[in-house]
Design goal:
The structure is a homodimer. By secondary structure, chain A is an alpha/beta fold. Chain A contains twelve helices and twelve strands. Strand 2 (97-102) of chain A pairs antiparallel with strand 2 (97-102) of chain B.
Chain lengths: 345, 345
């Protein structure tokens, strides 16, 4: 076995590139100011010498590790795979990397945050539904910026970026009503998550305004996964004991896709002729040929940009921005699962 | 704005728990030996004090950061989402985390590895097709274990874990032949990746043995994504100028799913009556009701275990294990897209 070679240092690179050592440091620091020509010289010298800066060692003095923690609750929902992909690419362009943490549906949220704190991360992006307000306090006390993605915590001063889920739910109720639907069912997600709560609230509010009674809106939880959507649809409609509603709202696309497959392939229903259907999120998977699901799209790229802006990664440490909660409007994607005119006034 | 509070140290935790400081350290070190009762005392004291060990600071002395780099080429293929999920969960159980790196299809592989080396990772798991042998040398020289997942580099001494892709390709050819197929087409993946090459080789070899001529096997590349599978199927069959083959082999499930949707919903074909179809990987998505795709399953959990075993994360630094390449057998999952008897001799 070869012994590890003695490592090349930034001094060696500076000497070969004929620049200062500080220039070498700046060439490898995301967001720092350096002339393009100087940077090229450094990169070329570093390549020749196989030099790689050690972000971990330098983080002890700079207090920047260039690592961002992304806490994921549910990769069974492709929406979060697209979110991971978008954050990964955007942060990599900036010279940063994503440290992923997955939280099991039933897991203690405090444990997840404690695990995150072991790694001196520059910021935390939280997409999981479970998180205690206490833990946000701990992050804030330690000066670690944290942004809630696609959720918020009522009464907390944590900043968040999300789609206006309640408005999206209203939009979908409106679309069903215009298409002539009179009876309704919902497949809901995690009841502890504001995302599911808000979509349900907006949807139901609009239906109540139209004279539908709350008790007449059937619902089942689908745990925000394809299989959960399948099971919820079977619980709702599998035994055929009750009259089928005109319209079904899956509060996210992946559950609506599971429900759709059951309605067609198990229960022999036509969509939208026998039942209208809609989802939420606008994931590309729901636009595939067998689905063509009408949905509300979440603008992931915009939401990612907003999240990174709140983290202020390129600036010197500064007071954490608290209490930011700017809901971004989603837009209706008309596809094939709601019939009729495709305009809402 | 509150100033960050002065941080609690391991001394404070040791004092409260009435244990030695070394016990506190061991309680937070994955794989270290400590009595369950002592560990509980430490964890309880740490909770009370909001103490969190800093893996990054301690990594400078222990040379362990508890960070494993996972280099992903393609999240557009759900197989790799399942791989990420499996590594994340398994490593988290051990007290470690995954630092994800995504490599764009056309990107320089050296850049990716140089980015990885900036973070003092304990090991590298590489799932992307692109990687130069030179970079494996650099990892080895620095004492960083690297394992290729689901691929290998011919002529290199890098260790890898993979499914026996060539045997799987043969298995699928055999299944088509037994079902009476006489003419064949393939949708291939990244031509630089050994995974696609080996599946194609095994498939074609078996067909040649059965008297099929190589020139009669149509093929198109589908870039290992759903959309790529859609486009490849349209290129192969869209204009109807050539006679359709009896059987189509998508060398991974996600491309086979794209092709299947085009064959049915654009070209009006019945599967398997008008064309048989098969994929590879055994992703759960391909077993959903509209697809019911016959496939070869890759045993992800077993492959993840093997990969972690080669990395030797729980042991003191040791010579890197080189040249390990143990292909694991995949198994045929019979579903609805190949007709006939479901046994191969």
């Amino acid at each position: 076995m070869k012994r590890p070679k003695s490592r090349v240092t930034s001094f060696d690179v500076a000497a070969l590139a004929r620049v200062s050592q500080s220039a070498v440091s700046r060439a490898f620091t995301p967001g720092s100011s350096i002339a393009e020509e100087t940077k090229s010289k450094v990169i070329e010298a570093a390549r020749k010498l196989n030099y790689v800066p050690n972000f971990i060692a330098s983080s002890l003095t700079t207090k920047r590790s260039n690592i961002i923690a992304l806490i994921l609750g549910n990769l069974a929902n492709p929406f979060y795979v697209h979110v991971l992909d978008a954050f990964s690419r955007r942060l990599q362009e900036q010279g940063r990397q994503v440290l992923t943490f997955t939280v099991e549906p039933g897991a203690e949220s405090d444990d997840a945050i404690m695990r995150v704190l072991r790694y001196q991360v520059d910021g935390v992006i939280l997409t999981a539904a479970q998180l205690s307000t206490r833990m946000i306090g701990i992050c804030h006390d330690r000066g670690i910026p944290i942004v809630l993605f696609n959720r918020y915590i009522p009464g907390s001063d944590a900043s968040g970026v999300r789609c206006d889920n309640s408005a999206g739910g209203r939009l979908m109720a409106e679309a069903f009503l215009r298409a002539g639907a009179k009876s309704f069912a919902m497949i809901t997600g995690d009841p502890r998550g504001t995302t599911s709560q808000d979509r349900v609230r907006g949807f139901v509010e609009r239906l109540l305004e139209a004279g539908v009674r709350r008790g007449d809106i059937e619902e089942a939880s689908g745990h925000s996964s394809y299989d959960g959507g399948v099971e919820a649809a079977l619980r709702l409609f599998g035994d055929g004991s009750k009259p089928r509603p005109d319209a079904l709202f899956g509060i996210n696309d992946i559950m609506a896709m599971g429900a759709m497959d059951v309605l067609r392939h198990r229960l022999g229903l036509r969509i939208p002729e026998d039942m209208m259907l809609a989802g939420f999120d606008g994931i590309p998977e729901a636009g595939r040929l067998p689905y063509q699901l009408t949905s509300v799209s979440q603008p992931i790229d915009l939401m990612v940009d907003e999240t990174l802006a709140i983290l202020h990664l390129d600036e010197p440490p500064r007071p954490i921005e608290r209490g930011i909660d700017r809901p971004i409007c989603g837009s209706l994607i008309w596809r094939a699962t709601i019939p009729g005119p495709r305009v809402l006034e």
